[in-house]
Amino acid sequence: MKCIVDFFQLAEKLECEYRLTRMSDDALQSVASHSWNMAMMAMVLKPYLKNQVCMERVYELCMLHDLPEAIAHDVPLHEQNDVVRQKKRVNESAAIKQIVDLLDNDEMRARFTEYDLRESAEARFVKALDVLDTAVQHMCAKDLKYIGEYADNFYWKMFFSIDFAKMFDFEPVLRGVFDEIKRRVADRLNAELGIDAGIFVK
Questions:
Q1: Distance in angstroms (rounded) separating the CA atoms of residues 190 and 134
Q2: In terms of Cα–Cα distance, which of 98, 179, 187, 92 is closest to 132?
């Protein structure tokens, strides 16, 4: 029982870890909230998927994919370079080992490996949801000005790029949902900040 309760205590820290993205009430999004949003999106999108997936594994991957950040913490994308990414990978690998060893759970270890390799339909779907949730927060954020404050509009340039949209092409429903979100974000940028999103497209 001790190891299970220790795990619950560790997992709670994900609710205290915050991402760069802001919510509709202007609060920072917690990593745990991000994972919950992904699971909710998975449930809603399931009937529309072209590629069949095991939803139990999808939910497990949604819940686990960022759990190492309860120990290793989140690193915003605009702060990452080759050195930072390597350090992040080392820290998260150590965190995964600590989590898995705590429960001595081979199935959990397999889920972490599956997500890292991105070879299964479930892992590819969950990675797309990971990115899609960021798009949702761009749409829902109370104030869009903050997103442009980082590294010369780093996040807007990424969000409106052709490569970003291509990440959803393997599932038509994902691409359709993303395109609708992108349209709404572009409309908000124009209406609220007088910014033509076309300046970010590359």
A1: 20
A2: 179
Q: Which helix (H) or strand (E) holds 53?
A: none
Half-sphere exposure of 40 (CA within 13 A, CB side): 9
Does the model's pTM come out above 0.85? yes
Structure confidence by residue, pLDDT tens digits, 83-136: 989 999 999 999 999 999 999 899 999 999 999 999 999 999 999 999 999 999
Q: What average pLDDT does the chain have?
A: 95
Residue with tokens 């993303």, as numbered in its chain: 178
The total domain count for the chain is 1
Question: Which domain CATH number covers 82?
Answer: 1.10.3210.10
Q: Do 140 and 34 form a contact (C-beta atoms < 8 A)? A: no
Residue 10 lies in domain: 2-200
